[in-house]
């Protein structure tokens, strides 16, 4: 739990982007966690995406920065959202529908688990664990779903913020190959 | 601007004159650099891209012969400016456009292991498809998980290529 009761969830889209650079972006994330005096949270699905993928060997053979971050104590894997809580379950269904609409696709191509981060964010607010939630994702439909749906459960807009990775930490925006510009 | 149509079994993973540009990342990089920096000289390219002078001379000649770049001044040193590339390839139901963005995506494999690995695994055709998703991603009308499901990739792989191609489509 961070300053002012702020809880930060990081999505795999951001972790994947950070993992493509030689450690510097994870250092930037670590600094950001320390500055905010918080431990970044990642959902079980996010953890599985960034650590349990056979393709990982091809793309990132010699490191597991997420496991390192967990060992260092500035990132932790949460439990799955409480599907049995009707509010949590409903917001995840709504998020699924929202993402399908945003991307002009049928709901079949979005899974409920894709919206774990939205369910977990609502849980934090409902349980009073935190009074502000940051959802950090580069997937625009997911970020928009969090920002637009969570206030419907009795919270102010200010209590829910969606940031992209580079909005969270400017170092994450640095282009990899500047000679192209 | 050249627009052509052709028929091949696998639209982009094919030989042929135009494909010299697509199959040679350093040549693709030189085209991309000239495209981003009009009126550039051979020396600029050599110094910025850190390529051997002979290679740059040879590749710029090739690009000029193919009509992808032209000398834009009369004096010396020669200055080069890129032509817009827009080639339409049709093969059965598949259509592929060869654009400066696709050339830049190929060029990035030199410096970006993610792009390099993706092309090794999915070919230039796969890269062209990923570029379409990257445009959608930048517009906010797709997520990396949706791309993964539709293209039968892991979420990690979709995330890698979308992140890698973001600067190409956002430029």
Q: List low-pLDDT spans of chain A.
A: none
Strand and helix order of chain B: HHEHHEEEEHHHH
Please indicate the percent range of residues of chain B in DSSP E strands (runs of 2 or more). 5-15%
Uncertain runs of chain B with pLDDT below 50, 5 residues or more?
1-15
Instruction: Compute the CA-based radius of gyration of chain A.
Output: 16 Å
The helix fraction of chain A, in percent, is 40-55%
Specify the overall morphology of chain B: elongated
Radius of gyration of chain B: 17 Å
Question: What class, by secondary structure content of chain A?
Answer: mainly alpha
Distance between the termini of chain A: 40 Å
Q: What gap, in angstroms, lies between the N and C termini of chain B?
A: 20 Å
Major sheet summary line of chain B: 3 strands, antiparallel
Global shape of chain A = globular
Biggest chain pair interface? A-B, 34 and 39 residues
Helix content class of chain B: 55-70%
Would you report the number of β strands of chain A?
5
Helix-strand category of chain B = mainly alpha
The tally of beta strands of chain B, per DSSP, is 5
Q: What structural keywords apply?
A:
heterodimer, A: 181 residues, mainly alpha, three-stranded parallel sheet, two-stranded parallel sheet, 9 helices, globular, B: 171 residues, three-stranded antiparallel sheet, two-stranded antiparallel ribbon, disordered N terminus
Brief description of this entry?
The complex is a heterodimer of chains A (181) and B (171). Chain A has 181 residues and is mainly α. Chain A has 9 helices and 5 strands.
Model description:
The complex is a heterodimer of chains A (181) and B (171). Chain A has 181 residues and is mainly alpha-helical. Helices cover 46% and strands 11% of the residues of chain A. Chain A has a three-stranded parallel beta sheet. A two-stranded parallel ribbon of chain A has the order 2-3. In chain A, strand 4 (132-136), helix 8 and strand 5 form a beta-alpha-beta unit. In chain A, helix 6 (86-102) packs antiparallel against helix 7 (116-127). Chain A is globular, with a radius of gyration of 16 Å. The mean pLDDT of chain A is 92. In chain B, the strands form two sheets. Chain B has a three-stranded antiparallel beta sheet. In chain B, strands 4-5 form a two-stranded antiparallel sheet. Chain B has 171 residues and is mainly α. Chain B has eight helices and five strands. Chain A binds chain B through residues 12-13, 16-17, 20, 49-50, 53-56, 58-59, 99, 102-105, 109-111, 114, 138-142, 144, 175-177, 179-181, and chain B through 32-33, 36, 48-49, 104, 107-108, 111-114, 117, 121, 136-137, 139-146, 149-150, 153-157, 159-160, 162-164, 167-168, 171.
């Amino acid at each position: 739990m961070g300053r002012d009761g702020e809880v930060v969830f990081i999505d795999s889209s951001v972790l994947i982007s950070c993992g493509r650079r030689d450690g510097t972006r994870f250092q930037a994330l670590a600094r950001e966690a320390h500055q905010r005096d918080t431990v970044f949270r990642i959902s079980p699905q996010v953890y599985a995406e960034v650590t349990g993928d056979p393709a990982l060997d091809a793309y990132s053979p010699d490191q597991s920065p997420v496991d390192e971050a967990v060992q260092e104590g500035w990132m932790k894997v949460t439990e799955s959202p409480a599907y049995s809580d009707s509010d949590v379950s409903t917001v995840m269904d709504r998020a699924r529908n929202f993402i399908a609409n945003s991307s002009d696709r049928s709901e079949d191509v979005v899974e409920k688990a894709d919206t774990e981060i939205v369910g977990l964010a609502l849980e934090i607010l409902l349980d009073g664990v935190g009074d502000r939630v940051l959802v950090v994702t580069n997937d625009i439909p997911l970020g928009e779903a969090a920002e637009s749906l969570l206030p419907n459960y009795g919270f102010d807009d200010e209590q829910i913020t969606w940031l992209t990775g580079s909005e969270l930490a400017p170092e994450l925006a640095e282009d990899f190959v500047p000679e192209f510009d | 601007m050249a627009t052509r149509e052709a028929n091949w079994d696998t639209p982009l993973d094919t030989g042929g004159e135009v494909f010299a540009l697509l199959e040679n990342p350093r040549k693709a990089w030189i085209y991309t650099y000239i495209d981003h920096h009009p009126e550039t000289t051979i020396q600029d390219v050599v110094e910025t891209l850190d390529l051997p002078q002979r290679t740059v001379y040879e590749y710029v000649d090739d690009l000029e012969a193919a009509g992808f770049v032209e000398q834009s001044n009369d004096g010396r040193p020669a200055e080069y400016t890129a032509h817009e590339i827009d080639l339409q390839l049709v093969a059965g139901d598949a259509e592929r456009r060869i654009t400066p963005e696709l050339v830049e995506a190929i060029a990035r494999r030199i410096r970006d292991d993610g792009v390099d690995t993706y092309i090794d695994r999915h070919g230039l055709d796969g890269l062209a498809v990923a570029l379409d998703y990257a445009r959608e991603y930048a517009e906010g009308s797709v997520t990396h998980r949706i791309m993964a499901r539709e293209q039968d990739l892991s979420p990690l792989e979709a995330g890698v290529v979308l992140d890698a191609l973001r600067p190409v489509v956002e430029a």
